[in-house]
Amino acid sequence: MRAALWRRRIGHGALGLGFVALLLLLWDLGVRGEWVLLFDIKMGFLPAPDVVARLLWDFAFGGLYDDAYSGTLLEHLTASALRVLAGFGLAAALAVPIGVLMGRFPLVNAALDPAVNLFRPVPATAWVPLVLLIIGFGSQATIFLITLSAFFPILLNTIAATREVPPRLVEAARMLGTTRVGVLMKVVVPAATPGIVSGLRIGLGLGWVILVLGEANGIDTGLGSMIMLAREQVRTDRVVVGMIVIGLAGFLSDRILVLGFKGLFGRRPLVRA
Amino acid sequence: MSGVRSAVAARSAGPVVDESGRVTLAGVGKRYETKRGPVDAVADVDLEVAPGEFVAIVGASGCGKSTLLRILAGFEGHTSGTVEVGGAPVRGPGPARGVVFQDYGLFPWLTVAENVRFGLRQQRWSRARAKQRAAEMIEVVGLTRFADRFPGELSGGMQQRVAIARVLAADPALLLMDEPFGALDALTRTTMQHELKRLRAESGATVLFVTHSIEEAVYLADRVVVMAGGASHGAPGHIAAIVPVDLGDERDVNGPAFNDLERRIAALVHES
């Protein structure tokens, strides 16, 4: 049984990797053949995969091209990750408690819901010009934009999760002697944790999306700023390298978040599989 | 175990009767305001349950038997009459009135042991005492091997044992059970009935037990309350009859006396 399960897993893994290999091959062929695809995508303008791979290596370890970006991946990644972390952390610290209160207390909800619905539909991109005017270029503007965009998905998921707490669990706790206030921490928060964690994951993912937007202006360290500078220099290879690193960083930070919670909760069923 | 035994001594022996388990319902009614005017879920319910007595409540769906239990638990208010437990009016839920739900109501993120400790800790028992008491109660319901499992890893019958253990741990004067075995298969149900009979003898708590099964009611109870009415009958839920069960402690569910009583109660349920 176990062996069969593993065989299937390895089979599925090979299938997935095979598809990635096929995409890489098509990419390479398209660049060499200067294919023009749907949406007028001119593949001739793309760097070939091997060019990107070499530049990525140089970005990470240096020694190939010896330019301003050689061996600086860690520096840029750290700068970007810290901004994402600061913005996301602030958003979570605000959205989770507010969401719990809005989910459980109709009065709090009545007070805050209109404001939430007023601000929520305004996309981060629409905030950028105003933010640049009232905060100015730099890290603070980036962190602000990340906080703003991560806040709403965390808030809405927290509200929904706390509303879905089975009333039976609240009754059980009250019957066992828990006070009304105690129920919040002892029952509502743990019961809502799977939904809150889902919201945190969405918020963190959005943080990386908005990072590029924030770093687009007046910042010289960070993956987003690297991409935008490379665009001005028409360095498509560097743009693609930046995209790859941001994608990997987003993926890894999500894994770290989930594994962190799993480590914290152990076998307790508090995170959705 | 010591807590259970001491409770038995306090409630059953000696001239001093512990009155904390007495239930007094007088003229109890519950009225909902709806768009089409007021609806009475239950009305004019009078019931006196002596300390240590086991009373089963049967009746068709919607007759208000669960509502009555929820009022006694303090989950819902009543709109007329008086509801007293141990001589004091019921104001909100509390650990003196333990509730066992059909769907268990265990905290899925806590282990069996932590679920049983939960109430004790909320009632400010010390960590050590709560831990010891929980271990005792888990042993009483035969789940020591599963103390560190999570509810989701247990069968329905085992989960209900945990739910009973966590309520009995605080030694409540009154146990309110709302179709506790309704979700269990027939075999497990029979086992749980035996088990409840034993636990109840050890604890000495007053028990109010809502069930759909007349056999279960006759097997377990000292008296069976038959309720009737309900929204679909156009009349508020009310008590139609109260039938004493004089069958002694050893009851044979296949015996003629048992079956006679079962038929009599079934007739009362259906005609009302």
From TrEMBL, chain B:
Q: Which PROSITE patterns match?
A: ABC_TRANSPORTER_1 (PS00211), ABC_TRANSPORTER_2 (PS50893)
InterPro entries, per this entry?
AAA+_ATPase, ABC_transporter-like_ATP-bd, ABC_transporter-like_CS, ABC_transporter_ATP-bind, P-loop_NTPase
Q: Where is the ABC transporter domain?
A: 23-254
Which terms in the Gene Ontology molecular function aspect does this entry carry? ATP binding; ATP hydrolysis activity
- Note the SMART domains from the entry: AAA (SM00382)
Keyword field: ATP-binding, Nucleotide-binding, Transport
| Alphabetized PANTHER family for the sequence | ALIPHATIC SULFONATES IMPORT ATP-BINDING PROTEIN SSUB (PTHR42788:SF13), TAURINE IMPORT ATP-BINDING PROTEIN-RELATED (PTHR42788)
What is the protein's given name?
A: ABC transporter ATP-binding protein
Question: Which species?
Answer: Nocardioides zeae
